[in-house]
Specification:
Layout (H helix, E strand, L loop, with lengths): L4 H12 L21 E2 L6 E2 L6 E6 H7 L14 E6 L2 E9 L2 E2 L11 E5 L2 E2 L13 E8 L3 H4 L6 E7 L8 E9 L3 E11 L4 E12 L4 E3 L8 E15 L2 E12 L7 E4 L3 E10 L12 E10 L10 E3 L8 E16 L2 E19 L4 E9 L11 E3 L9 E20 L3 E22 L2 E2 L3 E18 L6 E19 L4 H6 L4 E21 L2 E12 L10 H6 L4 E14 L4 E13 L1 E6 L7 E6 L2 E15 L2 E13 L4 E4 L2 E5 L10 E13 L2 E13 L17 E14 L3 E10 L7 E4 L11 E5 L4 E9 L1
Parallel strand pairs: 7-10, 14-20
Antiparallel strand pairs: 1-2, 3-9, 4-5, 5-6, 7-8, 9-10, 11-12, 11-46, 12-13, 13-15, 15-16, 16-21, 17-45, 18-19, 19-23, 21-22, 22-25, 23-24, 25-26, 26-27, 26-28, 28-29, 29-30, 30-31, 31-32, 32-33, 33-36, 34-35, 36-37, 37-40, 38-39, 40-41, 41-42, 42-43, 43-46, 44-45
Length: 778
């Protein structure tokens, strides 16, 4: 249902205006000191300034000001981090840090950025893009995190930490949001005390939004959102020094795919294959005649570079359906001041069904035409008509995914030693199938059934000599991985001919990742560090392969060795905070998706050796005057693939681009935060500018990659709140994102469907969005 923004605004104003004036109490100014940020990036709570990692963290207040509700919102806010949705599936996030990530979401390939929710690793990027209920903190760790986070963190790691129940207090928070594009969101959190030593928290999220592109004549829009999420948290002390934290979360999502717009191309009729003797194509054709396989494309909407906001629905649009259920049980045993034992158990189930219609405003088909005159007919006459025209590729892919994780951690310290040690187990089982059409012809049923297991032991030891300014950290992790996958695909002629009953992939891997960090404290407020860290991304195979040999042999693990020098310091009585990191990363067997079949959909992951990544990351925060803070974050990145040509045995060589895809050379954020208390009232304001510049590519293959241009977006928010006895707070917030309505690209499919007039097929980022949020908390 398409919601009218004006009706929604009026409803919110009428129902919630009285709440805004409920409470009174004094609020004091923020002062001239930057607040300390506590993180758990090294498995213990400590100040961000004391952690020798290039890390960015947002606390709950900052998340609310910036409107960060999901992973997609992070991409523009953090340098050298790129977040974009997977084409056709908004809830599959592609996380890329320092140029390393996962571009093609498959169940037989792992991500390069590890995602954790409350300490539990999320094994598949499918279903990772949804909103998380009641986020308390987000931590982004840049660079390999091999020792403590293990495999699949060669680019870095993202920690999402949800607010825990509060012991001994009843609490309630309700927030309602309305905005343009029919946007409506409700967030509810209720905290119940269970005696003095336990508490229960119930959380609910309902979020709806019309699409960013209206589909005229269709009840659905492109890029629409319809989401519900619920969560139950229980925390308490079982016995003295033994704490239990349990969470169950469930999500039900019915989004629609973003619109794939042709910005270059047009109607055409082009030879795909030929000339070829007719008997090799079909026994129904007269023999010994030279014919061509011809592709036909008709565009209902002419190609144009400007973002469209209304299109005529050529084919019916369908919902994407996503269901997620997760359990998390954490037991923390404080044995003594020298030792904490922690057990983290996780189970996650994802059922995803997404619908994809490639270039939904294009009608395509394939026919067979004479390559030379015959039977008194001129060349070009169709012997087999290319119609009726339909979708280039359309279908629904389903995924059932289950994962289990178990981790044990031993955390402690003595007078001069801090240590973390542990053991980790991970397993997943996934089944993926596809039904659909190509050029209006039904595809046969195809599927992949996979299983994946990993075992690891790890440890990190920090030695701080007495009365020394130096500290030394050694880390190591040993992992063994096992992956199997059975694939049946009758739609690829070459694969079906070699494996008519399917094929099995079965490989084992092992890896040892050491790390060394040396830190020198210049004074109590500043330090420098140097580190050498290794990372490992497991091997696997491709569910899109048309080559049996490549499928069964798969690809080997991706290995990264990173060198980093960093500085962290605070000055002028903590009014200025400056963190800088300079890094160099060497990557072998960089896993990249390359076309290895006759169509762009037939692809394998091929390793590229000798990849180099160099860059700088800078975070600066300044308390300019009382209540006003400025922040500047910059990222510079240069990547080199180590050559211009990727040789492929038995296949044409691939010409490479100059750098890694989705790795902008320049990225940055400049923001102001203002807070002023006056009596019972408090005024908060935020203004931010996010920029990504330089060359941004979508593929390493020059044949299907075109640079996406630089862009910058402006976000802002202003809120007025009141509180009473520090227990009640009412707040009214007006917010806006991409206020200048900048048109920018988040994905480019250039070259993948050139034979069908789709020279550049792209997805645009969201247009200007704005609205207001009313909240009440007790």
């Amino acid at each position: 249902m398409k919601i009218k923004s004006r009706q929604l605004y009026n409803l919110l104003l009428k129902s919630l205006t009285p709440v805004v004036f409920l409470v009174v109490d004094p609020v004091y100014g923020e002062g001239l000191v930057l607040e300390e940020i506590t993180v758990t990036s090294e498995r213990r709570s400590e100040s961000l300034q004391k952690v020798p990692i290039s890390i960015t963290a947002f606390e709950q207040v900052s998340l609310e000001k910036r409107g960060i509700d999901e992973l997609d919102d992070l991409g523009a806010s953090i340098p050298n981090l790129s977040v974009s949705p997977f084409p056709s599936d908004n809830n599959t996030a592609r996380l890329i840090i320092r140029g390393l990530g996962q571009l093609d979401a498959q169940i037989t390939q792992d991500p390069a950025v590890a995602l954790y929710i409350d300490g539990v690793y999320v094994g598949s990027s499918i279903g990772s893009g949804l909103e998380v209920v009641d986020l308390q903190r987000v931590e982004i760790l840049r660079g390999p995190q091999g020792s403590l986070y293990g495999r699949n963190s060669t680019g870095g790691a993202v920690n999402l930490i949800v607010a825990k129940p509060v012991l001994g207090e009843f609490g309630f928070k309700q927030a309602l949001t309305g905005g343009n594009l029919g946007h409506f969101k409700s967030r509810t959190n209720i905290n119940f005390p269970l005696g003095e030593t336990a508490a229960l928290k119930l959380s609910a999220l309902i979020s709806k939004r019309d699409g960013t592109v209206e589909a005229i004549g269709d009840p659905l829009d492109y890029g629409a959102e319809d989401r519900e999420a619920y969560r139950v948290d229980i925390s308490g002390d079982l016995i003295e020094n033994l704490r239990l934290d349990y969470a169950y979360d469930t999500s039900d999502v019915k989004d629609t795919s973003r619109y794939e717009q042709v910005i270059a191309g047009g109607d055409l009729s082009t030879v795909l294959v030929g000339p070829i003797l007719s008997q090799f194509l079909s026994s129904s054709l007269p023999p010994n005649i030279l014919v061509n396989v011809v592709g036909i494309a008709e565009h209902d909407i002419p190609a144009q570079a400007d973002r469209l906001d209304r299109v005529t629905a050529v084919r019916p649009l369908q919902d994407n359906l996503l269901e997620i259920n997760g359990h998390n049980l954490t037991l923390t045993w404080n044995i003594s001041e020298y030792l904490i034992i922690k057990s983290i158990t996780g189970y996650r189930e994802v059922n995803n069904s997404f619908f994809h219609d490639s270039a939904p405003s294009v009608r395509s088909g394939i026919g067979i035409a004479l390559a030379e005159p015959a039977f008194g007919l001129p060349a070009g006459t169709f012997l087999v008509a290319a119609g009726p025209l339909g979708a280039t590729s359309q279908g629904r892919r389903k995924l059932d995914f289950q994962q289990k994780t178990q981790e044990f951690q031993f955390i402690g310290s003595t007078n001069f030693i801090e240590y973390v040690a542990g053991a980790y187990f991970y397993s997943d089982r996934a089944y993926s199938d596809l039904v659909g059409t190509s050029f209006n012809t039904a595809r046969a049923y195809e599927f992949t059934d996979s299983k994946n297991e990993s075992l690891a032991v790890f440890g990190q030891l920090t030695f701080v000599p007495n009365d020394s300014y130096w500290s030394y950290t050694l880390g190591a992790r040993y992992a063994k991985d096992s992956r199997q996958a059975f694939r049946f695909n009758p739609n690829s002629p070459s694969f079906a001919a070699s494996a008519p009953y399917g094929a099995l992939y079965d490989r084992d891997f092992s890896n040892f990742d050491p790390s060394l960090t040396i830190t020198y404290d210049i004074d109590k407020d500043s330090s420098i560090y140097g580190k050498v860290v290794s990372g490992y991304k497991s091997g696997g195979t491709s569910t899109r392969s048309s080559n049996l040999a490549l499928y069964t042999s798969g690809f080997v693990p991706e290995e990264t060795l990173a060198y980093e020098l960093g500085f962290k310091g605070e000055f002028l009585d903590n009014r200025v905070r400056l963190n800088v990191a300079v890094f160099k990363m060497d990557v072998d067997n960089y896993q990249t998706s390359i076309q290895t079949g006759t169509s762009s959909a037939e692809r394998d992951f091929i390793g590229i050796n000798g990849v180099e990544i160099n860059g700088i990351e800078l975070d600066l925060q300044i308390a300019l005057v009382e209540n006003l803070r400025a922040s500047l974050s910059l990222g510079l990145l240069h990547s080199d693939l180590g050559g211009d040509i990727l040789p492929l045995s038995g296949l044409p060589d691939t010409t490479l681009i100059d750098g890694l895809p989705y790795a902008p050379e320049k990225s940055g954020t400049f923001a102001f935060d203002y807070a002023l208390g006056f009596g019972r009232w408090k005024l908060d304001a935020f203004l931010g500018y996010n920029y990504q510049g330089g060359e941004r590519y979508s593929s390493v293959n020059s044949a299907d990659s075109v640079a996406m241009g630089s862009y910058g977006v402006i976000d802002a928010a202003i809120s007025l709140s009141m509180n009473h006895l520090d227990k009640h707070e009412s707040k009214l917030t007006f917010w806006g994102k991409n206020l200048a309505d900048k048109e920018y690209l988040i994905t480019n499919f250039s070259g993948t469907a050139v034979p069908f007039g789709q020279n550049e097929l792209v997805i645009f980022g969201d247009p200007k969005t704005f609205g207001m949020t009313v909240s009440y908390a007790y």
